[in-house]
Write a structure and sequence with these properties.
Elements (H helix, E strand, L loop, with lengths): L17 H4 L9 E5 L4 H12 L3 E6 L2 H14 L4 E6 L5 H13 L6 E4 L17 H28 L3 E6 L25 H24 L6 E7 L13 H13 L3 H4 L1 H8 L10 E3 L2 E3 L8 H15 L1
Length: 314
């Protein structure tokens, strides 16, 4: 539990906050996209990046909620550069429209934070007829990253600054331990387990970052890193579909779980901290390098997932 935390090699621990891991860092001139930025750790990530001078584009499903968050941040930080754009990650059409609109704005893109997610939902299919958690947590982010990668490459070359892609995963990526991701079972409602399906989508986040990092390292002149992370167990609305668990979280969450400021720390650390310059294809927890599951480190599974996803999105 976070209150028994010890500092790791980075000098930070599970009790470190997003402000602490970015203290003294000037993000002026950088542009970031944060998905799921209208609540929870996405909102706190947006606030802290804006506090450090980053121009943040909030990619949100509910634009009205996004604008409310923007107003709150600007009220606290008058110099903040924050904008909200509509993005529904469960819809490929919405992802394509968002990417097109962003590219039309001619804005640079230094940092892409794939943060949004749904957790342990009842079995549902997305607008593209893909199991909702896999569609939202993995497919949407894979497509978004693919569509914006050229913009990130151009920005990195023009600015001579490292681009960073950050996938927010979870320790739940360890739970589909038997066979990793069963590509033939993604939409199978028979024996569907909501938390197992969530674990598969979070494993996909780790594999996506690792395979992307591997491919980027093979390209000459590309200065972009890709990493994944576990934010910690945080009392957020992610638990809303989990019945009894949600009730327990409401009652004792503040005593044993991370707060939102601590939960956003590792994301902000990977987005801005110079300690991680040049580090790519790693899994982080509590603002320190950690070890992903064996499936998360499986290069062949990563390649297989990449090919499978590429066919789905095309």
């Amino acid at each position: 539990m976070w209150f028994f935390s010890r500092k790791g090699p980075s000098g930070f621990s599970s009790s470190s906050t997003a402000e602490q891991v970015t203290q003294g860092i000037d993000g002026s001139g950088l542009t970031a996209i944060v998905t799921g930025a209208s609540s929870g750790i996405g909102q706190e990530t947006t606030r802290v990046l804006a506090l450090r001078g980053v121009h943040v584009i909030m990619a949100v499903r509910n634009v009205a909620a996004g604008k409310n968050v923007k107003e709150t941040i600007v009220k606290e930080i008058p110099s903040a550069k924050v904008d909200a754009m509509e993005l529904d990650l469960s819809s490929m059409a919405s992802v394509k429209k968002f990417a097109s609109d962003f590219k039309s704005s001619s804005l640079p893109l230094n940092i892409l934070i794939n943060n949004a997610g749904v957790m342990a939902t009842p079995f549902m299919l997305s607008k593209d007829n893909i199991e909702l958690q896999f569609a939202t947590n993995h497919i949407g982010h894979f497509l978004l990253t693919s569509l914006l990668l050229d913009t990130m490459k151009k920005t990195s070359r023009a600015s001579n600054k490292e681009g960073r892609i950050v996938n927010v995963s979870s320790e739940a990526h360890r739970y589909p331990y038997e066979e990793g991701i069963r590509f033939d079972k993604i939409n199978d409602q028979t024996g569907y387990g909501s938390y197992r399906a969530y674990g598969q989508s979070k494993l996909a986040n780790v594999l996506h970052a690792n395979e992307l990092a591997r491919q980027l390292k093979q390209e000459d002149g590309v200065n972009i890193t890709a990493n994944s992370l576990h934010p910690g167990v945080i009392s957020t609305n992610l638990f809303r579909h989990m019945g009894v668990v949600n009730g327990i979280v409401d009652k004792i969450g503040g005593l044993v779980l991370k707060n939102v400021q601590q939960g956003a720390a590792t994301t902000c650390y990977l987005a801005l901290n110079p300690q991680v310059k040049g580090i790519s294809g790693e899994y982080f927890s509590d603002s320190n390098v950690a070890k992903a599951s064996n499936h998360g480190l499986n290069v062949e599974l990563g390649k297989k997932l990449w090919d499978f996803t590429k066919k789905l999105v095309s």
